[in-house]
Every structure is written in structure tokens, then in C-alpha cells.
Amino acid sequence: MSDQTIDTLLDEERRFPPPPAFAAQANVHADVYDRPFEEFWEANGRERVSWFQPFGELCRWQPPYAQWYLGGKLNVAYNCVDRHVEAGLGDRVAYYWEGEPEGDRLTITYARLQRDVARMANVLGQLGVGKGTAVAIYMGMVPELPVAMLACARLGAPHTVVFGGFSADSLSDRMNDMGCEVLITQDEAWRRGGRVPLKRTADEAMAAAPGVRASVVVRRTGGEVPMTEGRDHWYHEVEASDDPATVPCAPMDSEDLLFLMYTSGTTAKPKGIVHTTAGYLVGVATTHWAIFDLKPESDVYWCAADIGWITGHSYIVYGPLCNAATSVLYEGTPDFPDKDRWWDIVERYGVTTLYTAPTAIRAHMKWGPEHAGRHDLSSLRLLGSVGEPINPEAWMWYHEHIGGERCPIVDTWWQTETGMVLITPLPGVTTTKPGSATKPFPGVRAAVLNEQGERVEQGGGYLVLERPWPAMTRGIYGDDERFRSTYWERFPGFYFAGDGARIDADGDFWLLGRVDDVMNVSGHRISTIEVESALVDHPKVAEAAVCGRSDATTGQAIVAYVTLKGNEGPSLEMLEELRNHVAHKIGAIAKPANIVFTPELPKTRSGKIMRRLLRDVAENRPLGDTTTLADASVVSELSQRAAEAP
Ligand code: PRX
User: Fold this and answer.
1) In a domain, 87, yes or no
2) What is the pTM of this model?
3) Ligand 1 atom closest to 437 (CA)
4) DSSP state of 270
5) Is 314 in the pocket of ligand 1 (CB under 6 A)?
6) Which of 511, 524, 530 to mutate to test the pocket of ligand 1 (most atoms within 8 A of CB)?
7) Using a 6 Å cutoff on CB, does residue 412 contact ligand 1?
8) Which residue puts its alpha carbon closest to atom 18 of ligand 1?
9) Range of 537's domain?
10) How far apart are CA 81 and CA 531, in angstroms?
């Protein structure tokens, strides 16, 4: 974030106290902050989740590893599905599913979800999936995606969901790292009227992941896809019972692995973030209930993220289902077939709660308020934001044009690693300020430290967390050393989130973006080094340096500086080829917005690429300190080329 943006944030003086009518009916009140931390998490552990065997010890903290709800036995799928049916809620809608092709809809009750999960679990069981078998899931936003996750959870098989926009390499890397034996995918996915060839990409990935011995393929578009005899199985062709009694919910230990979610760090290799059973479930259910003021009997809740990211895991699947909520699940994009798709969905289902990302809000802003204006959005009562800092302008637009100036907005800060929201307003309690995520959630303690590790009472610095919370990651899969050095060494005794933050005079937190080599493009985390290695993987590239520059819609956009080998000359064709190469290596989300060809990169005398300088060039800012630069003329040359870049 530029200094100018930070100043704008600090000048923000608008205040939005909770509307009195909202506050009066809210699930939680101000006294929630007074509850002792142990008592808060202990009570929520008992109230939000059903146990096959109650837990004995609340939390064992052996930094940097925490364990929660020790001694308990439970099953996540039982908590998310079966117990609701047993409680007589079988007819309640779990998901209103909206497919992309017009009119493609499905209403999935909890009773139906239970049968669907049982069937999927039986199919997986026939393929030898049981407790501890690692399963990869590579799908679009179809009902079978949450069903697949829940089926794994029912069997005690840990899953990793890989976002459908990722490449074959990204998929095979993840499957190999986790040791996946089975892959669940679909023929193709619909996107903007086109078809995304998931199975073909999965085939390429399986060729590079020899441990994967079987795949289950859900038919979505009906497109022709190759099937490998003996390995690939059409889901609809496998004979399997959908009677839940045929496939019991495996009793799991509180600390058994539930899933891995891979995310970008500051090296080229994504990290497998570990989430376990009980703490994760209690954490996401408690936050979902409190922050979204969930009234499961009457709310229609919609988190418009993709399940392939942590937001979807925690707040489309596990949190809402554990709370017996009715949610919307949608396939596609906000502007297809038209820019009012979301508002049409809100109106049709009477959505009460909408949770999305600033990048989406800014896209809607750009398209203009008339699209929302054509629909009745009066059912909305609460709005949420996640994924990146929300600029006050986008906050105000959301408040006025979507929230009709009556809906509180919860700006929720969290990460793949934190599993659950950690800094957020509580909608019936907190006076919100556009651009501030306000206060740590009850039972969570956050702080801002300066460069020396001293506490900043008011002002800017590094965001840290002071004590464990139930859904915190249990580490990076197979890489204890990286876990310690990434999060725990910078400020010993604290979890270092990698974000800059400020605390204001009221003790409210303002998030300022990443302070490391991680970019945030449309709310997606991408490492500069990951993109650099994809670029240098191209045979004609000698060297590459990547940075993020501010972008009005996507938050940040990727800029690459590339030095070509030998006699290769820059050209528009080369530019397209490199962009496509990155898409092929990582996924389309990682495609650089600009590529600047340069004969040399700015390096320090010790040979380190000066990324800060590259960012200044990318954002046309006056260049910072260049005294450590080996060859100062490189920079002026670079500015010149950046200005001329196609
Ligand atoms: O920089 C912060 C930003 O997103 C990062 C986490 O990304 P990821 O693990 O992909 O999870 C995204 C969804 C939880 C954080 O380090 N971020 C997330 N939410 C906010 C945010 N930045 C500012 N305000 C937020 N509300």
C-alpha cells in the first residue's frame, strides 16, 4: 500500500455504529469480550459441536504448536450433516445451488446432502479410501464438491482441494507433496459460457503423480473426456448405496488431520497448511455464528468465494454446515451472462448475508450501481468483506449501493493459516470505520510490533498474534523448519502474520497489506518467487524479477521484469508466450499484467534483486534509495523501458 493510501485511511473519520434494531436482535453483545479466553473456547467447544467422546483438556500450547480439545472424539461430516437430520432438520435447505447455464438450479436439503455424502463415501470406500488415505479434489463449484469434502471427512480421509484454475503442474505438485492416492474431479467446468477442461488437466497431473491410483469423475458438462481403464471411474456409473447407515461416520481424534490447503509463501514451493479436526471446526462454527449473526432458521447466507480457497472451506462448507445454515452455492462469475447475476441471485433467494472480496466490490463499482439497482436487495441485512484491505471508497459503495445504508459491514481479516477470522467487527456491537477490520475476535489477542519487536500502542508496524486459537494451523505439512522460520522467528513468542497494520487511538486495527514477497491479486495470494521461477523455466528467459503494483480493481497486479537469453529480442509474441507459460505452469491467476524486457535487473552489490525498486518503477514513484545498487544506470534504463512497455 502506498504512503498516500495509508494517509487516506488515517484521515477516515466516518463512523457507523450498529443500527439499534440490529444490535437488539444480535447473537452476541459487548459482554462477549469480557469472557475469559479459556471459558469462551471451552463453552463454544461444547455448544457448537457434537462429540462422540467429550474432550478433556482445552488447549496444550507447546510453541509453535498448539493442540485443542484433547481427548475428544468427533466427526466433522456428522457435525455438518447427520446430526441436523437426526434433529429433525432434514427438510431444511443446506444449499441453493445456482449453476452457470441459465435455469440450472438445485435445492439441496440436509436430508439430500446426507444421502449424497453417503453415496460418495461408499464410492470412495470401494476404491479403498479409508481413515488416513489422502484424497485430492480438483473441481469447480458444483454440489459434488462439498459432497466430496464431506465424504472424505466422513471416512476420516484428509483432503486437499485444488482450485480449478490451477495448472496440471500445480495439481501434481500438491498431490505428490501430500501423497494423494485418489483424485476426485469432473469432466469440465462451465465458466463464462466456455468449458474448463478439468479432467484433461487432471490427466496431465496424474501422469506426473504416480501415487494417484484412482480417480472419480463427476459428469458436469457432458463433454467428451478420455477415461483410463482401471484408473478412472465415472461417478454416476459406480453402483453404490446412498443409505447413510451403510457408511458410518468415523470417530476421529480432535487432532486428526482434516485437510491441507496449499498457499503461496515467499519461496517457489507452496506450503501445505495443516488443519485438524476439532479446533478447526469449533473455530469456524463459532466465528461464522457470531460474525455473521447467523439465524439458521431464517437467514439465507451467501459467501461468493470459491471453495478452492480457505474462505470457501471455512465459510461455505464447514462453518455454515456445522451451524445448520442455509447457503447459496454458485458456479460461474459475477458478470456472466450479465453484470447483474449476483443481484439476481440475491433477489431470487432473499439472501440476507453476503460475504465477498474487495476486488469483487470494486469490479461492481466499475460496472456501475445500475445493475444492483434493477433488483430488490431489501432482504440483505449484513455484508462481509475478506481477502485484502478494503479501501474506504469501496466500503462506502458497498454500504450505499448494496447494503442500502442499513446493513452493517464486517471487514474480516484472516489467512489460510489462521483457519478462521481473527480480526473483525461484531455486527451488533462494533462501531465500524470504512477500511478498518477493527478488533480481534473474542478469545483472540492481536498486537502490532515495531521493527525491534516492541509493542506499538498506537501507530504502525507488524501484525502479530499473541496466543493460540482453535483453528490455527498445526504447521506446514512435512516442513517443521519452514513453519518455524516463516511465522515464529521474526518475533519470538508471537505468530508473525506477514501483514503490516496500524492501531488507532480507539485500539482499532487497520490492515496495510503484506510486508513480504507475497502479492495479493484479486484476493489471491501469489508469491513473487513462484512467478519468477515459472518465467525462468521458459527456455528463452535468462532472468526474471516480479513484483506487485497497485491496481484499482484487482488490488495488486503482477509486473515482471525479464532478461532474455543471448540474441533473443523482445516482441509482442514473446510477451504473450511468457504470459501463457506462467498460466501453464501455475494457473491463469498468476499471469503477469505487464512484462518489461530489460537487458539487466537492478541488483545490490551482493547480487540480490532490488524488488522494492522494481515496485517503485512499476508504480511510477520517485525511486527510493539506490546507493546499494551495483550499477545505477540500470534503473534509469529500466524506468525508460517500463514507460515504453507494450
Ligand atoms: O494480507 C492479508 C490478506 O490476505 C492474506 C491471507 O491470504 P489467504 O491466506 O489467501 O486468505 C485469504 C482469505 C482469508 C492476509 O495475510 N487479507 C485477508 N483478509 C484481509 C486481508 N487484508 C486486509 N483486510 C482483510 N480483511
Assistant:
1) no
2) 0.93
3) 26
4) P
5) no
6) 511
7) yes
8) 387
9) 522-644
10) 40
